[in-house]
Amino acid sequence: MPLPEKPQLGDPLAAAHPSEETLRLLALRRSTTVKTMIEPGPSPEQLAEIMEIGARVPDHRRVCPYRFVVFDGDARAEIGPVFREGFMQDNPDASDAEATLESQRFMRAPVIIAVVFSPQTEHRTPIWEQTLTAGAVCQNMLIAANAMGFAAQWLTEWYAYNRHVLNAMGLEPHEQIAGFLYFGTAEEDPKERPRVEAASLVSHWQKAD
Ligand SMILES: Cc1cc2nc3c(=O)[nH]c(=O)nc-3n(C[C@H](O)[C@H](O)[C@H](O)COP(=O)(O)O)c2cc1C
């Protein structure tokens, strides 16, 4: 299913896109645990489209506080020793078997995209708002991947916070991982999990007497 042609600056665009399919996807959306993710994953062209959709996100004052690092093919194994070292630094008493397991984190899925939160710290758009934009990027990408027929999961796990790993991934000190987005095919379909009742979160503001 090819994406529509990219609109040019100033092109008229629809204000709404009535779509039962989109509502269905959003109402039934479910992450697939990476444990059950198998080949195939998105092709390089599909990945580019997923990132294109990720970048089409609300962004106050167009800060673009995010960037992408793709881990596919051999790169998933090649980062393994870095995971091992980072894990051993945090867990010096860990066994070799545990370290080996940790080194294989990126071998669990065909493709992983690290969405890097890369804020402009001096910008007048608050960091909080820049953070929200990076989260929206991740969610857009999960939905795009699902709509293309792929399973997806948004994880951080320990290595999102390990300086040794972050250095090896090329993150600057002011950057953070918004998410590691794992993409593949579900070996088995996920099941519904407990969900909050949205109605229980709602109040209607009323003017005080
Ligand atoms: C920023 C962020 C980080 C997450 N990190 C983890 C994680 O490290 N491990 C995990 O099991 N789930 C993590 N999750 C939750 C999963 O992505 C997912 O939401 C969860 O499995 C529930 O599935 P659902 O998306 O179908 O509700 C994270 C979610 C977010 C938004």
Task: Provide structural commentary.
The chain has about 210 residues and is an alpha+beta fold. It has a domain at about 30-75 and about 105-190: NADH Oxidase, CATH 3.40.109.10. It has seven helices and five strands. It has helices at about 20-30, 45-55, 75-80, 80-90, 95-105, 125-145, 165-170; strands spanning about 35-40, 65-70, 110-115, 150-155, 175-185. Strands 1, 2, 3, 4 and 5 form a five-stranded antiparallel sheet that branches. It is globular. The chain starts with 19 loop residues before the first helix and ends in a 23-residue tail after the last strand. The mean pLDDT is about 95. The structure holds flavin mononucleotide (FMN).
Please outline what is shown here:
The protein is an alpha+beta fold. The protein has helices spanning 20-28, 44-54, 75-78, 80-90, 96-103, 127-147, 163-168; strands at residues 37-38, 66-72, 111-117, 151-155, 176-186. It has seven helices and five strands, in the order αβαβαααβαβαβ.
Kindly, what is the distance between the CA atoms of the first and last residues, rounded to a whole number of angstroms?
A: 56 Å
Q: Which compounds are bound in this model?
A: flavin mononucleotide
Shape: globular
**What's the CATH superfamily of the domain at 30-73 and 106-190, by name?**
NADH Oxidase
Rg of Cα set: 19 Å
Q: Spell out the helices and strands N to C.
A: HEHEHHHEHEHE
Question: Which regions contain 5 or more consecutive residues with pLDDT less than 50?
Answer: none
How many strands appear in the DSSP assignment? 5
The proportion of residues forming helix, as a percent range, comes to 25-40%
Round the mean pLDDT to the nearest integer and report it: 97
